[in-house]
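Re: export button greyed out
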Amino acid sequence: MYRVSVVKGQSRVSIQVEKNRKLWDVLLEHGIFLENFCNGHGTCGKCRVIVQPAREHHRLTGVERNFISEEEAQKGYRLACAVLVDEDMVVTVPERDREAVVLLSALYREVPLAPRVKKVKLWLKEPDLDDQRDDLKRLTDNLGSLKTGRDVICKLPGVLRENAFTVNAVIRKDELVDVVRPDRDGLYGMAVDIGTTTIAGYLVDLKTGKEVDVYSSLNPQRRLGADVISRINHEITTDRGREELRDLIVGEFNRMVSHFSRRNKVNRDDIYEITVVGNTTMMHMLAGIPADHIANAPYVPAYTRELEVKAREMGIDINPDGYVVMLPMVSGYIGADTVAAIMASGMYENSEVSLLLDIGTNGEIVLGNRERMVSCSAAAGPAFEGARITFGTGGVVGAISYVDLDSQEVYKTIGDEKPLGICGSGIVDVASELIKKGIVDETGRMKTAEELQGKLDSRLLKRIVEYNGQLAFVLDPQSGILVTQKDIRELQLAKGAIAAGMNILAKKLGLQWEDVRRVYLAGGFGNYIRVDSAVNIGLIPEVLKDKVVQLGNGAGMGARMALICDEYFKLASRIKDKVGYVELSGIPEFQTEFMDQMYF
Amino acid sequence: MYRVSVVKGQSRVSIQVEKNRKLWDVLLEHGIFLENFCNGHGTCGKCRVIVQPAREHHRLTGVERNFISEEEAQKGYRLACAVLVDEDMVVTVPERDREAVVLLSALYREVPLAPRVKKVKLWLKEPDLDDQRDDLKRLTDNLGSLKTGRDVICKLPGVLRENAFTVNAVIRKDELVDVVRPDRDGLYGMAVDIGTTTIAGYLVDLKTGKEVDVYSSLNPQRRLGADVISRINHEITTDRGREELRDLIVGEFNRMVSHFSRRNKVNRDDIYEITVVGNTTMMHMLAGIPADHIANAPYVPAYTRELEVKAREMGIDINPDGYVVMLPMVSGYIGADTVAAIMASGMYENSEVSLLLDIGTNGEIVLGNRERMVSCSAAAGPAFEGARITFGTGGVVGAISYVDLDSQEVYKTIGDEKPLGICGSGIVDVASELIKKGIVDETGRMKTAEELQGKLDSRLLKRIVEYNGQLAFVLDPQSGILVTQKDIRELQLAKGAIAAGMNILAKKLGLQWEDVRRVYLAGGFGNYIRVDSAVNIGLIPEVLKDKVVQLGNGAGMGARMALICDEYFKLASRIKDKVGYVELSGIPEFQTEFMDQMYF
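Workaround output, generated via the alternate export path:
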């Protein structure tokens, strides 16, 4: 075992590593994400790290020479995907390299352990001339009527006789999916949340329901488009584009399986099921089903119901007779991830009304209770994800995520690193603060220094500057990071779309915001946002301020619930049926609402 | 169109043929089987015919030169598989070439038309912003809850939009198996009986239940062994032997599909189901499931129940989402063919007791009524199939199948051709006649000419000769075809096994033969045997003489019943459960019975 010390800004992590592990894998396993576009295949050159000691025998590989200069090599620069750990080392992640923060933890709910898959040990009588029952009947006479595929029947005669007719039968619902040696008693499942940008996976021991391991990575489809629309366009316009997109995501599933198997010494044939959630486009792309018509009005998906497909048919390397279980969706823009988050929130079983918000490029909004739920998807644009903002960035290390104009530092960054830019929750904070200080008025107009003269602390006044012909507010004079009038307008559009969607839903149900007892914020943005600021810019109604619960990765949690307990999988379909969908583009009053809600 | 006149011995058939058809295919389609081991692939050289006029431009192909001499070529000899019909021609099948007779006709039973597959035309509403139902839901809202595979969902968006949302949905049981253009309304199924030696297939229009076409061929697995035991040994002792055997039979299925499709102008994607029967070993080999343990005591098959597998998974080229439906079996030696024959006979629904006999290398015997049925398989050896008989032959053209010592001709052959040998029914006839004339006594001993002097017509007396140190009776002085003492002994063994099996079953049910109201003879041998002779040698009890029904190909008929009407498929499983199996080798008294029953 070697010790790898990872230094990133102020933080330092120490990891015990077996000999000859790939450094890239080691970092990924410990939640340290390096920017990359090739998932460790040595083709993008993005995963640069500094390795010390920079010994002579640490020669650059041929691949690395494409990306690292001789001078850099002498400083210890390497590609993490090309380094094998063969001694103790200190690995520094250079400042420029960003870490994707994937939210894995989630609100804990008690879920009964009742998976679809079980392993049953059988001591069978050996056949003789007085008992010539066929092998399958001999087995199933002890188990009741079970569907059985050809592949299991194929292996049955061998397994029975090699083990003197004592075997473990693996049963999933009403199907015999495997027969194995009596000493092979591992029983695992996986739950996966496919995001447009990130993928989070969980390995679960189905005998205990306990989470064994966690995996997260960037969705390799990114190279074909940053958002769902550009990926659908790729699918439509490219020969075999659909297969290409499917293969990318299936490949990532297989890396995840491989990772879980290797790191936890789990036989991949002992993994019998994967539950999957994701937005509607991702669910189509994983299954290789055309998502074409989701992109344009009337935004019709090919399917929305749950789907259970043999792992063999999906090309996913768990037990070939195991299943990939895809949770149901509501519509083209309310996916299985939202259904899962509804399940994780518990709002489907409460008599009181709850509001669920999952805000990203699209904001998914669900309002209702156990009687009735309605949902919509508001095209917020990418402002909440830091895109199209002058100094915007994703929720990465170094992103300004917190702003307080009364404090001396003014801002804080994720990981307390030197600032790289402003992420979604930072934008909300800035806007909130600028409004509080009167620098931005309720129409969103930024005031000039002249207008504010005498009304504002000179410390702040001097931060109001002109930038490319527009007004701007400087957050970090040293790096020059600032917020422009245009950035505020982008935020208004995003906030306006979400708030208008919320209002449409409330009207649909004839509710006042006072009637809502709980607000669940799901997803990464929802977990990092400062509730006060969200209220202050009018994203969340004032009356709901004290009712906010930050749910974490509700989608991933719902996927695990459906894995651990079949009742939750069935529940997902009932939730799908119960949730109405409101197409905002089909509602005339949406535009009016949208205009109204743009104001702060 | 050209005219092909086929001359075979006395018979002459005239066939209308399209230009450039392969002569091999043309003959096969018209039930004229040529000996062959390669199914028309030009590798065995067995399918020799004489083509006239033997024109100059009918040059031998390279392949043919391996098998046909220059001298033969001048006489018009060709390989049927190498000849294209490009003018009127006379084709003579040379005497030596034998025709396999496959029994396709069967007792007609009225079967309700209720197939598992149906096609439903749907005029769907096009989606808009007020009706964003996904494609699958839009379709199934009109059809009720249906399972749907990924492949169908994949093609759904395209088919719907290319046809302005008017489509034909193909539904099998509770599954949506296909969606096609509204003008594609063909709906076909196939029924196949896989024999160890021959394969018979039927193309059925599932909209009318009518038989559209018939196909028969030799089982290509023959090259790996003549009987099930030698094929199982091939499977056990050869690397990938199981795959090899499966691929041979699957290949033959695909030739059948291709033949049906081409000849009847049926789109193979419009064939949605194939029901299959066969003996237990064939059922295993088609499914690629190990048959290993059927060969040795305690003769345990891997499975016996019915199996429905997607055509795609089987590699069979009908609609990939269609199904191959394999009927259930009873035991290692009572197969799906016997279950199907029971179904075709109707014995399962009668209160009176019936006896079903399907005699080949193994004799399958079923006795009982709607309350209870028992079965056994008696290892008769190959005597009834003409093998191990000195001048034995299969049921081919030229086989002596009828013997009457009082007539002038003494014998008749199949097709009235010059005699080639004696087939199973001929052997039974000879034995019966020899017994009647006192030439063979009840112990089976053949008497010498001296012993018979004065007791026998001198015309017959001179036919008793010595042949290789044993007594023999000459059937055809010209060709020298005769029956030896050893042949009679072989017949005694075969007859003894069957009769002993029958007696064991009768005892099992506490029945006398008087209690049996009907005897069904199934299969080729059962259809050609002379009942009087079978009674005379003691194969069928005297009291049952007038109760015999020759059922024809009961197995193929049962397969068609299960195709046309789902109730019969379900019935097959109930029959399987109702039929008890008696393992003769496990019954001590079987040997005693067998010895007793060897006597005539």
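Chain B touches chain A through 43 residues (CB under 8 Å). The button fix ships in the next patch.
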